[in-house]
Amino acid sequence: MDKYVFDNKDPLELKEMLQPRDLVLPQLKNNLMKAQQQMKKNADRKRMDIEFNKGDMVLVKLQPYRQNSVALRRNQKLRMRYFGPFPIIKKVGPIAYKLLPPYHVKTHHVFHYS
Predict the structure, then answer these.
(1) By the number of CB atoms within 10 A of the CB, which of 21, 32, 44, 66 ranks highest?
(2) 103 and 68 housed in the same domain
(3) What percent of the chain has pLDDT over 90?
(4) CB 79: neighbour CB atoms within 10 A?
(5) Domain range spanning residue 33?
(6) Are residues 71 and 25 in the same domain?
(7) Residue 64 pLDDT > 90
(8) pLDDT tens sequence across 25-58
(9) Would you say residue 52 lies in a domain?
């Protein structure tokens, strides 16, 4: 407990106490950087550069809580994975597109692909 009490210590003693921490910090930062690079490498493996045009038909994958506005299913276990196809009205951003879903759908009409 008294190891972390710094009130009565002079600066040299504090420096000696913090020296092991200063040796470990660069190693921890290096390990974190390696883990981030590995996760990015695995995520980039599944990514594709796809370009859609106006009028193309696309399928949409929705979160479970949003699916009820598109198609009401009695058994959620047997719910659909993808909905559509929906036509693309226009390109909103580099990876975002505005779709034309049926009138009863309560979700937002702009989607991005991933």
Answers:
(1) 66
(2) yes
(3) 32
(4) 15
(5) 2-46
(6) no
(7) no
(8) 999 999 999 999 999 999 989 888 888 899 999 9
(9) no
Residues 24 and 68 reside in one and the same domain: no
Complete edge-to-edge strand list for the sheet that includes strand 110-112: 57-60, 83-91, 96-99, 110-112
Same domain, 89 and 69: yes
As given in the structure block, the two tokens for residue 10 are 């002079």
- Distance set, CA 68 to CA 16, 63, 101 (Å): 62, 10, 14
The label of the residue with tokens 């597109």 reads 97
User: What's the whole-model pTM score?
Assistant: 0.54
Same domain, residue pair 9 and 28: yes
In the numeric block, which tokens belong to residue 72? 């009401």
Polymer length of the chain: 114
Q: Which two tokens stand for residue 45?
A: 């493996």
The DSSP element (H or E) to which 18 belongs, if any, is helix 11-46
111 - beta bridge partners? 97
* Total structural domains within the chain: 2
